[in-house]
Amino acid sequence: MDYVPNRKQEQEELLKAIGAERIEQLFENVKPQLNRPLQLPKPLSEWEIKQTLEQLSLKNTSFRAIFRGAGAYHHYIPSAINQILLRSEFYTAYTPYQAEVSQGTLTAIYEFQTYICMLTGMDAANASMYDAASALAETALMAYAQNERREVVCSNTVHPHYVAAVRTYCQAHDMTIKTNESDISDQTACVMIQYPNFFGEVEDVKALAEKAHANGALFVVCIGDASSMALLEPPASLGADIVVGDAQAFGIPIGGGGPYAGFLAVRKEYIRRMPGRLSGMTKDDRGQTGFILTLQAREQHIRREKATSNLCTNQALMALGATIYLSLLGKNGLQNVAKHSYTNAHRFLEQLQREGFHRIGSAAFYNEFRVKSPVDVNELNARLARIGILGGLALPNNEMLVCCTECITETHMREFVEQVRELKTLPANATASPHPIP
Length: 438
Known about the structure:
about 35% helix; 12 helices; 2 domains; 15 strands; Aspartate Aminotransferase, domain 2; disordered C terminus; alpha/beta; 4-stranded antiparallel beta sheet
């Protein structure tokens, strides 16, 4: 097809519609950048480029112990996962446009969905989302499509980044976000809670679900560290209508923030409201088991006005990694990971309390907890970074959010505590460390 540019008359009509007189006005904000010459270094040979990149890589910080969670969790990743994902038929596969031809892809998706349903107790799960934040935001649109209400009550203990994503999605639909349980009313589309919450605590999910349902609202549960589902009561049995979260804890590297694989699971009556894909298992005309793409919210397949979301893809490779992880560990293995994480966190909290840390809150917690520090949190994190340890997340009022997974050892805990003790012995007017906080 030939490219046919806009005619002069059409250009004038477009400019008039946006209040501009000439096309050059559209580029005025970037004009200063376009006028200056690019500050590029001289060309390098392949050998020189390799040397330069290797020197740059030395600036990367490598941590041998990570006490930080807050949505990204350092769990052990079996070597078999990457070896399987490196097969070319997996990492080069793209969207199954001719879905039924892609039986391997549909099988992997089906298995991922099955694992998510087993862990959450829900009836159906989709093929994965971009991450937990986008998955949670999509539930607000699902609730609006279900009951045509424009108010969302989101607990103030939900991850703040997730809440920001919810606000962005809802803004285009003139939906209002409220953060207090007392705001639940007959105008509420859905109630959102995190389990465990951003501070690692396990809240009374069932009571809030009952209040949401009493007002005709959907109840949405966002999972914190997904490994917690091996120990905690499934959200379905607590009254959840929709469950979302991130599969990052299942064999997906932290990766500086991604890519991750969000998940979204629902009760069967809300399947038609789900964004993304749903793989199903069936029988062909010869009685053989096969897989089909049961649902796909894509503009080529459904009317735009009928679509809950424009999401039409999934994090297939990351979801496959999570599926491999869950299949390798099995039920007992995943429970062992969760038990070690739980035990490490509670043991470490006891050690910190002996050093003068005070826990904020009293609810049960999984593997994250919030403490008030007796020493400057930023200075402590800087000292820990110098010995290869990533400290907890610094919070306002000199508080710290600390996480322990199965990868934390007694040696790591002792080294953390030693840095605390050294800081306590410094004079009150000692100069703060000039090193940046990771």
